[in-house]
Amino acid sequence: MERPAPLITLTTDFGMSDGTVGAMLGVIKSICPSAEIANIAHDVPPQDIVHGAWALYQAAPFFPAETIHVAVVDPGVGTRRRAVLIETEHGTFVGPDSGVLAWAAEQAGPRRYFAIENTSYRLGPRGLTFDGRDLFAPVAAHLANGVDATQIGVEIPSIVDLTWPEPVADEGRVAGEILLEDRFGNLVTNIPMALLAQVFGDAGMLVILEGRPVGGLSAGYAAIDGKLGAVINGSGLLEIASPGDSASALTGRRRGDRVVVTGRVSS
Asked: Domain spans of the chain?
C-alpha cells in the first residue's frame, strides 16, 4: 500500500501580509516535495503564546494521528530558549519551547520530548531571527521524509509548561476565569461544561463576571436574551458572548478576570 503524503500544519503569529509564511512553505516543499501543508492560524496576536497554544489545542485533535504540527509564537527567538520536538500518540509537535505546544501535546496522549540540537537539520547560517523558516520548517520536513526524532534531537524529561488555570468547584458554585477573548470579542473561560453538569445537573445557573451578573446558560448565540449571555462553545467551555457585538468591549473584561457560576438564577 502506498504511503500517504505526509501532512504538516502551521500555526504562527506571522500574519499573511508579507512572505514569512510563504518562506516556510517553500522550505518544507523543497525538502519534502510530497508534503501536504495545512494552515491552522497565522493571525495569532503578536507574541501571544496563550492564544497560539489555544489555536493549536483547538485544531490538532481533528487531524490524522501522523500529522506534524509546527507552531511558532516565539518571543524568545535569538535567546537560549530551546527548540523542541514532541512525539505523541496523536501527532508530532515542533516549535520553540515557549509553552505554545504544551496544551496540544498534553491532550494528545503519552509523549516523548526532544531538544533539537543537530545543526545539520538547520537551514544554514542565515540569522537568528527566523527560526520558523531556518529551523522548525526544515525539521518538520525531514520528519515528514522519515528521519527519526532521535537523529534530530536529544531526549529531555519535560518542556516549558503553560499553566491552564483550573476552575474550582465548592459548595454549589464554580469559580474560574477568562482564558482569552476570540476575534469576535467572545470571552472564553476555563470552566468546562462537564464540571457545570457535575455541580449543577439540570438546575438553573447564574453566570457572574467580576461581580456583574451575565445571566443563565443559553443554547446558542441566537438564544441569548439581551446584550450579554453565556453559552457552551465548540470546545466545551463556558463562554460569555454578546450577539452581534463584542462581549469584551461591552464589559471591559480581559484575560484573567474572574468568572463565578452559582446555582441561583436571575428572576
From this structure: 7-156, 168-262
